[in-house]
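User: Hey, quick favor. My workstation is busy. Could you predict this chain's structure for me?
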Amino acid sequence: MFKNLLIVVLLLALGFAGYKWYMYRNAYKLLMAEQSAGSSRNQRRTGPTPLQKGENFMSSSLYKYAVQIYPGTLGQQAKTALNNFDMKTSAMSDGSTKVTLTPKESTDQFQEYVVKNGQTLYFIEMTKNDDKNGSDINLRDDYGVIVDGTGMVQ
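Assistant: No problem, here it is.
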């Protein structure tokens, strides 16, 4: 009787282990297929690449879409780029300045940047023709980039 019970328990354990191995193998195959599809999608992606800290901003593909918004006074190009944002600056105790960009549309992104002395805040406006009559057709394509005095992304 004990011998039969032991055999049943061993068969159940082997069956469970086989089931787990089968599920693991299928999950692994699915993961590899998704990663392969993702890498081929990334290779087909066109357009500017995201900025990385330490990258030379002036030689990046996004520089042509940028307008300086701080420090200095906003020119017409900057005002046009920011037409769907309210910009507010406030001095901080360490001498830096907090720049707050509050979207006029609730679906766009609230943005806040701390700009230290010697740094410049640029606003990337990737699709200029999407901002018409106070509405942004292509949301979340507009964002800020802080650059140090040597032109490196911070």
